[in-house]
Amino acid sequence: MKKSNIYLLITLFILIILIPKTMLASNFRKSEYDFREIKWGMNMKEVKKRESLEVCDEYKNKLIYITNIAHRRSGLVYKFNNQKLTTALYIFLEKHSNKSSYINDYQKLKYLLIKRYGTPLNSNKIWLNNNCSSKIKYGAALERGDLAFASIWETDKTKIFLLLFGANNDIELMIKYISKDYAYLIDKSYMEGL
After folding, report:
1. Is 163 within the bounds of a domain?
2. Do 176 and 161 contact (CB within 8 A), yes or no?
3. Number of structural domains found in the chain
4. Which of 1, 32, 80, 165 could disulfide-link to 148, CB 3.0 to 4.6 Å?
């Protein structure tokens, strides 16, 4: 075999071995951010600087934006404890006359989150009133607060909750992101005043 053919085969062999590893590494590279283009622990000023949306409302410990997630109008809320970002959530604003449509929205969002984060650690349909366990009544049970849905994922730094629940004839659908490193600040804020 000619020397040039040997070099060509060696080069091809190296490329075959290295290219998939390089592609694999780039596909699974960790993001430098924890949520959107934000890092947990940032203060309000840093979050406002990094967030591309315009602030809709601002409170002592909250920044609120309006955005679209998965083609659904949503509120984006950043929550701060001890001047550090600890929680972010999308609250879906679309209201349905057919209350079972919320379950369809939940399932679509769950599918998208599975594509992004993999299989949830836990996913449950929770009956708070066992007398209402017929699928036909799911929408009404949600609205009354007799039924809730929850799925949970985790990354290195974040717990992610997809939640669907109701009370007093109002249904809420949200995705909540909680910093694992700063969760102690959330717990501490709940304990104040007790």
Report:
1. yes
2. yes
3. 1
4. 165
Whether 184 has a pLDDT exceeding 80, the answer reads yes
Whether 37 is covered by a domain: the verdict is no
Beta carbons of 142 and 129 less than 8 angstroms apart = no
> In this structure, is residue 33 part of a structural domain?
no
Reported as half-sphere exposure (CB side, CA atoms, 13 A), residue 8 has a value of 5
Q: Is there a contact between 33 and 177 (Cβ–Cβ < 8 Å)?
A: no
What is the CB neighbour count within 10 angstroms for residue 106? 21
Neighbours of 89 (CB within 10 A): 18
Residue at token pair 């949520």 = 35
Residue 164, strand partner residues: 149, 173
Report d(CA 77, CA 187) in Å as an integer.
18
CB-CB neighbours of 23 under 10 Å: 10
Predicted confidence (pLDDT) per residue in 93-133, tens digit: 999 999 999 999 999 999 999 999 999 999 999 988 776 65
Are the C-beta atoms of 134 and 121 separated by less than 8 Å? no
**Tell me, what amino acid is at 5?**
N
Q: Which structural domain, as residue segments, surrounds residue 113?
A: 44-191
pTM for the model: 0.79
